[in-house]
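Weekly puzzle thread! Below is a chain. First person to post its structure in token form gets bragging rights.
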Amino acid sequence: MWILILAVTVTGITSTAAALGAALFRDRERSQFIYSLMLLTAVTISTLLDLSPIKTLSRLAIGDYYTSGWNVALFVIFLAALWLLLSRVSPPPARLADTTPDGRWSVLLVFDSRHDNP
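Winning reply:
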């Protein structure tokens, strides 16, 4: 069970990091470069701090006595922090207008104009 949660969490971390790069740098080339640097930095820091997800996965797979759900919880907390940062940085999504004044459904997309690019 912990292995599945760890795998989904690591996938969420990489996806959220990619979305964060895309939200911060609207240019595709810069966002891909920053994403690559983020991955390299994350692998380096996790290896230095002995918190590598691959090491945790291996320890969970062999049933290490000292590895438990708390090790997985560290990655879940990091994913939650990344998600909160992404929700603060990214512009609000477009929303559908509910109904017109006469009660019919409208398909008009309403955008927040504060986040338009000049």
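Puzzle host: Confirmed. Bonus trivia for everyone else. The radius of gyration is 20 Å.
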